Amino acid sequence: MAFAPKPGCPMCGIVSEATAAALSVSPSTRSSSHEILWRDDNFTIYRETANPVSSKGHIVIVFNLHVPSLYTLSSSDLPLLVSLRDIAARLLASLQSPTSPLASPVSLSRSPLTTSQPPRVARDTYRIGFITPPFKDNKIPVTDHLHAHGYILPADRMGWWRSVAYSSVAWYDVDDLIAEIREETSNNRVRSGANPRPIDDVPDAGARRGTADGVETTDPGLLVVDPELGATSPSLLPPTPGSEEQARRSSSSDASIPHLQV
């Protein structure tokens, strides 16, 4: 299996721990050494309590698959990155509002969180992104299992040594990564900023690529679609020429275009 769990990997251990807790029917066996805030088929998110960079809240978004590097991702993983950004933003917002149900120590059950519109909270109150190698957070020194950090400003517990990893030298903001991939695939100027843009409401924008003659060159993505929520919006896009989806649509009566009588 591609990106299978790696023995001895701390992040794989956290994912396994959260999965076991979610499957446990006995509340007494749900004890965990990490404060798991969210778990689904793609991510496990926990609150960093041992060495947070912010006293207001610091979360770590772990990919469930043992993805070794940020550079493994491709344009087809744009929906995954958008989902990461939206879930992390809502969790950080919940930490700022203690009355929110998401602020509880454990939120393992699925909810419509990932399917609602992107959060319209002030982006200048938090940061979500990746630390790019060879830099690393020396308090969370995992470099071969992809994970992102999210924290509420100010970073009052960061310290000068850790601040290097969270500075512009090593930090890759998730919005900048999404914008850069979209620019590369669509050949359009897309930049993130404080004000939301309409393209931010389209998670799959820029996820597919192809040649001018209609041949699709999109790489397989890592996103796991929840069967309870149904397929994501790529199913609404034109099918790849020669694919099974195109053949299925062509065989249906609804897909045929009637000839007009002139």
What does this structure look like?
- Helix 2 runs antiparallel to helix 4.
- This protein has 262 residues and is an alpha+beta fold.
- The radius of gyration is 20 Å and the shape is globular.
- The chain has 5 helices and 6 strands.
- 23% of the residues lie in helices and 12% in strands.
- A 6-stranded antiparallel β-sheet has the order 1-2-3-5-4-6, with helices on both faces.
Kindly list the characteristics that best describe this protein.
six-stranded antiparallel beta sheet; 262 residues; globular; alpha+beta
List the helices and strands and how they pair.
Elements lengths: L9 H14 L11 E5 L3 E5 L10 E6 L14 H19 L29 E6 L15 E6 L6 H5 L7 E3 H13 L57 H8 L11
Antiparallel strand pairs: 1-2, 2-3, 3-5, 4-5, 4-6
Helix pairs in contact: 2-4
| Order of neighbouring strands in the sheet with most strands | 1-2-3-5-4-6
Q: What characteristic shape results from the CA principal axes? A: globular
Q: Show unreliable segments.
A: 103-120, 231-241, 252-257
Average pLDDT metric: 78
Q: How many angstroms does the end-to-end distance come to?
A: 56 Å
Structural class: alpha+beta
Output the helix-strand order. HEEEHEEHEHH
Secondary structure tally, helices? 5
**Biggest sheet, open or closed, and with what strands and sense?**
6 strands, antiparallel
Q: Helix proportion of residues, in percent? A: 10-25%
> What is the rounded Rg?
20 Å
State which percent range the strand residues make up.
5-15%
Secondary structure: number of strands? 6
